[in-house]
Amino acid sequence: MWKKIVSALIILILGASVAFFVFKTEPKLNNNFETEHSFFKKFPFRLGLDLSGGSHLIYKADVSAVPSGEVGSSMDALRDVIERRVNLFGVSEPQVAVQHSSLVSGADEQLIVDLPGITDVKKATEMIGQTPLLEFKIEIQKDTPQTATVDKDGKVNLDINSQFVSTELTGRYLKKATLEFDQNTREPRVNLQFDDTGTKLFAQITKDNVGKMVAIYLDGAIISSPVVREEIPNGQAVISGNFTPNEAKLFVGRLNSGALPVPITLLSTQTIGATLGDTALNAGIKAAMIGFLLVVFFLIFWYRLPGLVAAVSLCIFIVIILTLFKLIPVTLTAAGIAGFIISIGIAVDANVLIFERVKEELHSGKNVADAVSLGFSRAWYAIRDSNISNIITVLILFWFGTSLIKGFALTLGMGVLVSMFSAITVTRIFLSTLTFIGEGKIARFLFSSGLSK
């Protein structure tokens, strides 16, 4: 019995600690938030575009060099790169959408990017970043006309860019980039490793251009033009130039974060306000609190002592979920909050199943301790099956859904998993601890349904 009491006390202390953390890290709850330690200031709730506003960016993608049959796949790849760059963990819910040329004027595609919570346009564009456009070009045929200019002294200067022609090999086929240092000069250089497709393209380019230059372009400017000595079949290329170590490190990081398959240009930026606004957000929080209190009142009225235990378990469930939202962190939108509220209902449902089974065992003549033990054991299968079906649904939504749907699926899935812990572990420990009150009429009254037969 003492072990159960100690376990219950530990859970209560941990629950209170988690609740204290949520309170200290939320400026809407903690009036002294500005004077708190810097540790607590790192974990405020992150609100989505519909609740906190953000930045709306429109990019133009230049697909003039992309074959018509590959425009769609190139734009999809561009969208994936941008989304991955601003949402490394898939939880900040950026909205990145492709607007095809059939819907806009001109031959170029457009990319629409909405960044929740980022109202500083400059910061938003820095988050997107101009990921390097890496291109490999080969020398033109000898009889191909070249562009030349004449300066004021009458000197003819050939345009170096006109001496090279584009190939299919771009940063799109880059697998990874690493920073190295020349063993002799100690100058930094960047080693490129292509994927399978890029390896084949690079091998063919070097095979066909032995003794010729292959120019490496970065963002439209030539940075290196080595002469090919022999075919390179392993898909590795080295870029050396006037890099400082910091520049080379930054260049490698930008390449690895996702090389853009096509060049993009920022067309317009706009800072947008919250569509629901603070008023609606506060009203939603107020409604959630009222609903929670009504549910707690019903549980205590209907199930008496088990209902009180369920209310405590539900409070622990809520503070655990809110803490996870802060620590991951999860960007909360209206859809995400809806998933969280549904998970509260699922947590209540698990407790109802358990208490009804306990009530049935009591009616069959079992003592309180045995009724609690059997009630949990026999309710577990229904709880397990219902939660597995919920998790399967969540995985499907998260896998195939848009960013908005993923936010709903994420909060719902987290709620389902934590609700299983709170219902099976927390509630069971508390109820098992309370069976010490004995087997008298008072005990059976406290553990029976308020309107039982």
UniProtKB/TrEMBL annotation:
<comment type="similarity">
    <text>Belongs to the SecD/SecF family. SecD subfamily.</text>
</comment>
<dbReference type="InterPro" id="IPR022813">
    <property type="entry name" value="SecD/SecF_arch_bac"/>
</dbReference>
<keyword id="KW-0653">Protein transport</keyword>
<dbReference type="InterPro" id="IPR022646">
    <property type="entry name" value="SecD/SecF_CS"/>
</dbReference>
<keyword id="KW-1133">Transmembrane helix</keyword>
<feature type="transmembrane region" description="Helical">
    <location>
        <begin position="388"/>
        <end position="410"/>
    </location>
</feature>
<dbReference type="Pfam" id="PF21760">
    <property type="entry name" value="SecD_1st"/>
</dbReference>
<dbReference type="InterPro" id="IPR048634">
    <property type="entry name" value="SecD_SecF_C"/>
</dbReference>
<comment type="subunit">
    <text>Forms a complex with SecF. Part of the essential Sec protein translocation apparatus which comprises SecA, SecYEG and auxiliary proteins SecDF. Other proteins may also be involved.</text>
</comment>
<dbReference type="InterPro" id="IPR001036">
    <property type="entry name" value="Acrflvin-R"/>
</dbReference>
<dbReference type="InterPro" id="IPR048631">
    <property type="entry name" value="SecD_1st"/>
</dbReference>
<dbReference type="GO" id="GO:0065002">
    <property type="term" value="P:intracellular protein transmembrane transport"/>
</dbReference>
<comment type="function">
    <text>Part of the Sec protein translocase complex. Interacts with the SecYEG preprotein conducting channel. SecDF uses the proton motive force (PMF) to complete protein translocation after the ATP-dependent function of SecA.</text>
</comment>
<keyword id="KW-0472">Membrane</keyword>
<feature type="domain" description="Protein translocase subunit SecDF P1">
    <location>
        <begin position="75"/>
        <end position="138"/>
    </location>
</feature>
<dbReference type="Pfam" id="PF02355">
    <property type="entry name" value="SecD_SecF_C"/>
</dbReference>
<dbReference type="Pfam" id="PF22599">
    <property type="entry name" value="SecDF_P1_head"/>
</dbReference>
<dbReference type="InterPro" id="IPR054384">
    <property type="entry name" value="SecDF_P1_head"/>
</dbReference>
<keyword id="KW-1003">Cell membrane</keyword>
<keyword id="KW-0813">Transport</keyword>
<keyword id="KW-0811">Translocation</keyword>
<keyword id="KW-0812">Transmembrane</keyword>
<dbReference type="InterPro" id="IPR005791">
    <property type="entry name" value="SecD"/>
</dbReference>
<feature type="transmembrane region" description="Helical">
    <location>
        <begin position="416"/>
        <end position="437"/>
    </location>
</feature>
<dbReference type="GO" id="GO:0006605">
    <property type="term" value="P:protein targeting"/>
</dbReference>
<feature type="domain" description="Protein export membrane protein SecD/SecF C-terminal">
    <location>
        <begin position="266"/>
        <end position="431"/>
    </location>
</feature>
<dbReference type="GO" id="GO:0015450">
    <property type="term" value="F:protein-transporting ATPase activity"/>
</dbReference>
<dbReference type="Pfam" id="PF07549">
    <property type="entry name" value="Sec_GG"/>
</dbReference>
<feature type="transmembrane region" description="Helical">
    <location>
        <begin position="283"/>
        <end position="301"/>
    </location>
</feature>
<dbReference type="GO" id="GO:0005886">
    <property type="term" value="C:plasma membrane"/>
</dbReference>
<feature type="domain" description="SecDF P1 head subdomain">
    <location>
        <begin position="167"/>
        <end position="262"/>
    </location>
</feature>
<protein>
    <recommendedName>
        <fullName>Protein translocase subunit SecD</fullName>
    </recommendedName>
</protein>
<dbReference type="GO" id="GO:0043952">
    <property type="term" value="P:protein transport by the Sec complex"/>
</dbReference>
<dbReference type="InterPro" id="IPR055344">
    <property type="entry name" value="SecD_SecF_C_bact"/>
</dbReference>
<feature type="transmembrane region" description="Helical">
    <location>
        <begin position="334"/>
        <end position="355"/>
    </location>
</feature>
<feature type="transmembrane region" description="Helical">
    <location>
        <begin position="308"/>
        <end position="328"/>
    </location>
</feature>
